[in-house]
Amino acid sequence: MPIDASTTASAILPLVGGPANVTSVTHCMTRLRLALADPGRVDDAALRALPGVLGLVRSDDTCQVVLGPGIVTRVTAEFGRLLTTTPVRTQESTPLKAVLRRLAGVFVPLIPALIGCGILAGLNGLLVNAGLLPGLTPALAAVAAAFMALIAVFVGCNTAKEFGGTPVLGGAVAAIVVYPGVAKVTAFGVTLSPGQGGVLGALAAALLATWVEKTCRGRVPDALDVLLTPAVTVLVAGLGTLYGIMWAAGAVSSAIGAAANWLLATTGAFAGLVLGGLFLPLVMLGLHQALIPIHTTLIDQQGYTVLLPVLAMAGAGQVGAAVAVYVRLRHDAPLGTSLRTTIRSALPAGLLGVGEPLVYGVSLPLGRPFLTACAGGAAGGAFVGFFAMLGDRVGATAIGPSGWALFPLLSGNRGLGTTTAIYAGGLATSYAIGFAATYVFGGVRAAVAARAVPAAG
């Protein structure tokens, strides 16, 4: 049954302490993220029991309600309308978490465009290779590539907005990074090139612009503020971007690309093992957000990120583990029946790369199956990494999707057929090892007997 966004938002609000307890509202691909004045007022059990709620993640002053892709956007919009005051961001608990949340605020809103343009780019590539619709492919190429050509501007706008500046000023300064005229500028004895520094340069440029703007505010007379502050902001931050940021960010971006390629080319199997095995714990701690600028930099620089297909294996390991739990509990009622119902409802989302329902509804509450699922992710990551050592790089043209949903976004250096086969082999490996490790070593029946695991929505 389709979930009604308005009804869901109305049901969630009182369970998190009401409007007065909510200080900010955001969302990612699958979660409604709420910053709270008093986290102790949240009714965890009632939230988990709501229809449509797939899980709950608590972290310091933040409550994350797992709803799934698509519906989370609609619920967030409805939730915002229910609040009687404009949400105000609270003081973050630690500097690291503050930085990570700000980075997510900059890059997560870009993901829908990355996905849409990535799928169109893949479709266009198929048409070009097949020699089909030659009159349409140039138009598709323009539609697919335009966003990436100007992504620096969007990063600049979001950065300024996230850090308290004027979005259009952040975008104006970040636009310098991709402006063709920078080819006439020489910095540190080197002629600049359009796009040098990429999204990292745009991020740094907008941060500088925000700092300059805030410095000007309050120091410039009110009568002149509307004229002087924008002019000084664009001038100072623009020159700083040309004569420092683009050069430095370009060096960092090149180093990131070289490091990612070297890591997989020389230690691919081991790197894949570690990345695939540890990614879900990183997600639970929120540390995966630090990878978003790296993914975006690789896509901007090379056309795809070689890290995402490896990290996607973590979710596949969870699928394999969940199937093993389902099989193990086929004769265990009533607790087994309840958990098997949860798995049946969450498995389609898991296959499409939305792993939270399986993680928080199945493997994590059981304990050991979470570890065996991570072993499955490690095995799949090692599989993909091994082929990278052989020179077969598998990448994704956008971030966000994983599992089967990543197939339309795959790209690589050996052709789509080889790239797809390697990624599919990695998924199969993760499924198989996640299943086998959980079936043999998961201690599923003992864990279920020791604790009552409720169905996740």
Low-pLDDT stretches: 85-92, 453-457
Count structural domains: 3
C-alpha Rg (nearest Å): 24 Å
Strand content: 5-15%
Main beta-sheet strand count, sense and barrel state? 4 strands, antiparallel
Order of helices and strands: HEEHEEHHHHHHEEHHHHHHHHEEHH
Number of strands: 8
From the spread of the alpha carbons, the general shape counts as globular
Mean pLDDT: 87
Counting helices, strands and paired strands, the structural category is alpha+beta
What's the number of helices?
18
User: Which strands sit side by side, in order, in the main sheet?
Assistant: 1-2-4-3
**Helix amount, in percent?**
55-70%
Distance between the termini: 13 Å
Structural write-up:
With 457 residues, the chain is of the alpha+beta class. It folds into three domains: 5-86, Gyrase A, domain 2, CATH 3.30.1360.60; 110-251, no CATH class; 303-450, no CATH class. It has 18 helices and eight strands. The chain has helices spanning 5-15, 44-49, 71-82, 95-107, 111-130, 137-149, 151-162, 167-174, 198-216, 222-285, 292-302, 308-311, 313-328, 335-351, 356-366, 368-389, 416-441, 444-450, and strands spanning 22-27, 31-36, 55-59, 62-66, 186-187, 190-191, 394-396, 410-412. The strands form three sheets. The protein has a four-stranded antiparallel beta sheet. The radius of gyration is 24 Å and the shape is globular. The two termini are 13 Å apart.
